Amino acid sequence: MTDERLVVIGTGIRLVGQLTVESTAWIKCADRIFHIADDPLIVAVLSSINPSAELSTLTHLYGENKPRAETYEAMVQTIMESVRKPGLTVCTFYGHPGVMAYPGHESIRRSRLEGFKAMMLPAVSAEDCLFADLGLDHAMTGYQTYEATDFLWNDRRLDSSSHLVLWQIGAVGDLTFHEGEYNLAALPLLVEKLLRWYPPSHEVIVYEAAVMIDCEAHIRKVPLNELRADVVSARSTLSVPPAAAVKVDHSMYERYKVLSHGR
């Protein structure tokens, strides 16, 4: 297993219980482990799995009002310094390491460019928790999802008959890091844009996954036109149920019937 130079894993959303068996096996083999964890419980878990590994945090690279892009680049450079050394480097990220987590993807890309083996393992993400807590099923309504700032700043088009999920609404429009709450001056603009497809009274869900086993997810339902800064936090995700019935493509359906019956 230690032939791999870099393995990027996720610790899941709940602090205990969502670390996979596969990820645990790689942690046990690691020479160096990087983590981004505010909670000492995660650090304790990593240390207990592999007490002999060199354990380092990347959290100190964040800075108040510092652009997150600068922080992510510093993280990648730190990881790459480790990858170039003999042995196995494991990087752990909150949730899924490939969801809203640029440093993991970029570290793998650069590692491979330099000739090192690198891979990412699947993990439980906030999306997985959202599906379970809200009872969503892709097959029932379809599914579309965007990062909130990306959706706001770009010419995205929605299908209001499909379910929509917008990530990081608690930091929409703010590209810097903050220890506390983010500047949500852009939130009214996000609401304004959503009103192009949804009526003002359409009920949306502000969602936050539970981070402890004995806690429940935070689920708050509000009309779209009442989505304000005081009902969201830095961890909030916006779930928007369909507002219209799906339209049947009659022409394609008739062609399907002809083909399926051999006529």
Give the SSE layout.
Elements: E1 6-10, H1 21-29, E2 32-35, H2 40-49, E3 54-57, H3 68-83, E4 89-93, H4 102-113, E5 118-120, H5 126-134, H6 138-141, E6 143-147, H7 148-153, E7 163-167, H8 187-194, E8 203-208, E9 218-223, E10 237-240, H9 250-260
Parallel strand pairs: 1-4, 1-5, 2-3, 2-4, 6-7
Antiparallel strand pairs: 7-10, 8-9, 8-10
Helix pairs in contact: 3-4
Q: Quick one: overall form?
A: globular
CATH topology of the largest domain: Cobalt-precorrin-4 Transmethylase, domain 1
Helix content: 25-40%
Major beta-sheet overview: 5 strands, parallel
Order of helices and strands: EHEHEHEHEHHEHEHEEEH
Low-confidence stretches: none
What number of domains?
A: 2
Secondary structure tally, helices: 9
CATH architect. name of the largest domain: 3-Layer(aba) Sandwich
| Annotation, overall tally of beta strands | 10
What's the alpha carbon Rg, rounded to whole Å? 21 Å
Report strand %. Answer: 15-25%
- First-residue to last-residue Cα separation: 56 Å
The level 1 CATH classification of the largest domain is Alpha Beta
What class do helices, strands and sheet pairing give? Answer: alpha/beta
CATH superfamily of the largest domain: Tetrapyrrole methylase, N-terminal domain
Overall average residue pLDDT: 92
Give me the side-by-side strand order of the main sheet: 3-2-4-1-5
